[in-house]
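Troubleshooting log. The previous run stalled partway through. Resubmitting the same three chains, unchanged.
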Amino acid sequence: MNNKIKKTFSDRCFNLINTLIMLAIAFIMIYPVYYVIIASISNAEKLVSFKGILFRPLAPTLLAYEQAFKNPMLLRSYANTIFVVVVGTMVSMIFTILGAYVLSRNNARLVKPAMIMVTITMFFSGGMIPFYFAVRDLGLDGSLWALIFPSAINTFNLIIMKTAFMAVPSSLEESANIDGAGHFTILLRIILPVSKSVLAVIALYYAVARWNAWFGAMLFLEERESYPLQLILREILIQNDMSNVSEGVASAELGFISVTIKYAIIVIATVPILCVYPFVQKYFTKGVLIGSVKG
Amino acid sequence: MLVKTKMTKESKGLLEWRKDFKRNWSLYLMFLPVLLFYILFCYKPMYGALIAFKNYTPKLGFMGSPWAGFENFRMFFDSPDFIRVFFNTIKISCASLLFSFPLPIILALLINEIRNKRFKKFVQTASYLPHFISLVVICGMIKTFVASDGFVGYFVNQLGGTSGSLLQQEDKFLPIYIISGIWQTIGWDSIIYLAALSGVDVEQYEAAEIDGAGRFRKMFSITLPSISNTIIILFILAVGKIMNVGYEKIILLYNPTIYNVSDVISSYTYRMGFETQNWGYSSAVGLFNSVINLVLLLMTNRISNKYAGMGLW
Amino acid sequence: MKLKNKKIMTLFALTVLIAAFGLTGCDTADEAANTDGERKLTYWTSLTSTASSLVTNLGDTPMMQKAQEMTGIDVEFIHPPQGQVNEKFNILIASGEYPDIIQYRWTSYPGGPQKAINEKIIVDLNTLKEDAPNFFSYLEKHDEVRKLSLTDSGALFSFPFIRGDESLLYSSGLIIRQDWLDELGLAMPETIEEWETVLTAFRDKKNCKAPLSMNIGHFGQVHAFAGAYGVGIGYYLDNGQVKYGMAEDGYKDFLTLLNKWYDEGLLDQDFSTLDSTTMDANILNGNAGVVQGSIGNGIGRYMNAAPDDTYQLAGAPYPVRNKGEVCEFGAMNTIIPLMNNAFAAISADSKNQQLAAQFLDFGYSQEGQMLYNFGIEGESYEMIDGYPTYTDLITNNPEGLSMSSALSMYTYAYDAGPTIQDKRYMEQYASLPEQKEAWATWSTSNMANHLLPYLYVKDDEVNELANLSNSVETYANEMTTKLIMGIEPLENYDSIVEELNNRGLGRILEMKQAAYERYLNK
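Second attempt completed without errors. Output:
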């Protein structure tokens, strides 16, 4: 009895402290994002001259959003990004699932060399210029496919997925093997259904990486019409950085609205991917296991 | 006699290969697109890393540029920057590994202990938010916060009796870099552990509870071991990337007073390539970096295989 | 089960096919090769942020459409993403395939523009003299422009952006809160002592945290305060000698002054990390009383954002030692400014070199200059008494565009391009009385005697100079900041100068001096 009370007491303490820590963390994490949002609907001049911690928008206005949507590239780049994210994530998932499945079959003789081949690429790369040539030689440069295929597999994700596939109890597979099922059947019927959580996580990783990617676009694209959102976002972010117009009068009367436009664009660029997350999140709790087999 | 055994051995090996192919041909076929990807986008450019041994001139192209032997490497080792960027890189990445690696695990464990489902989801969602803010913005925020009148800068200066922005003080750069890094990635990095934790068998907890195990006991004896595989794999991968300190954040944060502590290999490579078009030299530095990474990876994997019984391969 | 397998197999085969198609197929359009008679060019240039918020391509602006119509040449513009201009340029160069015209800050090409010509990346324009009569006749008439444009070997690498009048060379300086001066009954400071009084008053009476809010770069741009001690910041000319400020007499006094001001809280406590955005904020919210800025981007922008009606700024004269003196140093540009878009070069591979030269030459013709400075007559400007006056479309845009945005659609003058900038543009652009006054104030200095032209160093010296400068300047920057902040005691100044010399300052000055003499003899 005594023991039990003690336990619940320490339990309560733990819960309390844990909750407090979590609240603190949540605040630290949320505030900057909150700041970006309220800054985006604040009056630009007031915002620039404000110092300190902001809790409420200053003279709320949607002017920044109006201005942001005036940018001829915003919607266009949005469409480009969505295309790259949707098609790119699909391509990535197909490639990664195939690779991970094959690499998780230890009993085939070529798997180990393949694994080494894959791992090496995480540490050696030819550098940017050779990479650029490789893509250009395939005739991919200038098209959105250059943002999809050359980055189809992230070896890190591949290894995570492979580890998860390996953790699927072999008893499940054996039963299928007895039925004489081929590799595709095993993959589709047995492995994938029990690996939903890892699939969701990896798909999220890919989608977010593609959503945020800009370097490849900078490298391979020529036409502004095909720029993804992040490249436009970066352009706007540096717009108010006067270091590049130190010579004098360029972009003068722009005023300070560009500061709030900057925040508005961040909101516009971030919200969609934030909205996707909660839908994926449920798999983390529902899903099965990832490398959680003991030993 | 001797010849005969050798023959049989060889044909036996061949036979086994044939058997392997017969059994696994569909498996190898599945790997084909993956193989194609790695050859076209990883190994083909990797051949291009030979640029490090060349004196690259754009007009002559990759093949036509004259060989330079180890000249580019020699130049790097001789340069006064070498010691500085090398040790800065090691310092920053070791600190990252020490702090940024374990913290997401702890966060995942703590989140896992939250009973209230909605609160749990809220904390989880909040924790990954910073991941989505662009680095340019984050660095802008850091600068404001650690300025002499920024709220972090003000308190630290009061406590330490210093003055001016914290970014003007050599000894503050590393903490600023690490802490802001943790802030940005801790939530995102914990996702993978949370996913792993979601698979832990509830029955085990119940059994432990009957045994009278407390919260911490359970955490250490059930939760942690159940995600140890994930931790080990991620640790090996992290060690293998130890020399990769991203240049972008460094470039956005540094200023003349702290050059000494903030210049790293990647920012150096970046400058050499993009600012002076010294592609050969830049690749040589990059290659040097990769070799160190690979050696570290092999070592960790070896150690892990020996002591933890598992590794990448 | 078997049937299913087959289906999956087909699906898989399809994936592979799609992948293979994606990887090898989908050939993009090859570079537009000109067939005979087609007058078409490709033109690589950065699109300014002002313009890019309105159009996606320079070719879409009324100015460029008119230019294409007037020259009868089709131009396809290729733009690097802003903020990635240098990266993209370097990739472009490394790729080995170039458009007809590349407009970039060629003076920063590693190894100098002459090296780009030697490497057969761009062409020596002297070979295209016949196709660019306007430009070459301008060069003949303007010796300084000619000297600035020619490399040591006499090669001409670009069609540059030229400031057409001396008054256009002065556009920035110190900006001070005039309303505070009036309120405190202080006169515009001239001598160092007066400046100190003013800054102290700002600190004590206006409660301002950073009376003087500038970073090292800002000081360097205007040479302010150092000028009072008879030294410039960085490299400059003194009686025909190339000098480096930090190693000269007087620089120590300048540093002593800033160190004192830093200690007393007159100089921004965060000056080493200060960025332009924070500086903007400081001058607007009363954290600062003095900043550095330009006519449009500084005074114009701040006045537009003025927090209240009493807010008043003025351009301050450069501080001097004794009252009534004219400062030896100040902010000044060279006639050909070293800007991103200031140099249009023609690639050596181009099959349309003559056409490209013709198109670029248009900017130096009478019609071209009018178009690039004022836009289209009857649309963006009207001739009133022989003076090209911007219409309401520019000055008071019906769609609410700011003047610089509207200008970016019709002119090059707001930025840079292959043309000659007209004084009459600036006269209208600096429309506020504060701007006009500041323009006059800032033009008063003897900087013209000290301004170094862009120097072409010898090919074999390029690498040496780059390495030495990098080492010397990084060290100098670091030490300047530390001396001002007191991290490094001022007693060490002499040993720091010694270290500068050890790092090769003497050799740098020697190379620069030689280059300067070659410049004089061109």
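Takeaways: The interface with chain C takes residues 29-30, 32-33, 36-37, 40, 56-59, 61, 80, 140, 143-144, 147-149, 163-165, 167-168, 255-257, 259-260, 273-279 of chain B (CB under 8 Å). Chain B has 16 helices and no strands.
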